Amino acid sequence: MRLILDVDLDALDGDAAAEVGRILRYWAGAAAQLPLDQAVSHDLMDSQYRAVGTFRIE
After folding, report:
1. Segment (H or E) for 5
2. pLDDT tens over the chain, length 58 residues
3. Which residues are CB-neighbours of 27 under 8 A, at least 6 positions away?
4. Which residues touch 5 (CB under 8 Å, ≥6 apart)?
5. In Å, how far are 7, 11, 21 from 1, measured between CA atoms?
6. pLDDT of residue 35
7. Which pLDDT does position 36 carry in this prediction?
8. Residue 2 to residue 15: CA distance in whole angstroms
């Protein structure tokens, strides 16, 4: 299994580093609740709730 976090940095407005940090903190906190042995895919949202990438386990 692989965990892939794919963020389109060009799609981020403002401080890209701050947005990526927020996304990473959110998914790090959610990791304990994810089934890491199953394929899943989720949209990654910026702070304005626009899709800016994907989180996948495959």
Report:
1. strand 3-7
2. 999 999 999 999 999 999 999 999 999 999 899 888 999 999 999 999 999 999 999 9
3. 5, 44, 55
4. 23, 24, 27, 44, 53, 54, 55
5. 19, 27, 24
6. 87
7. 86
8. 28
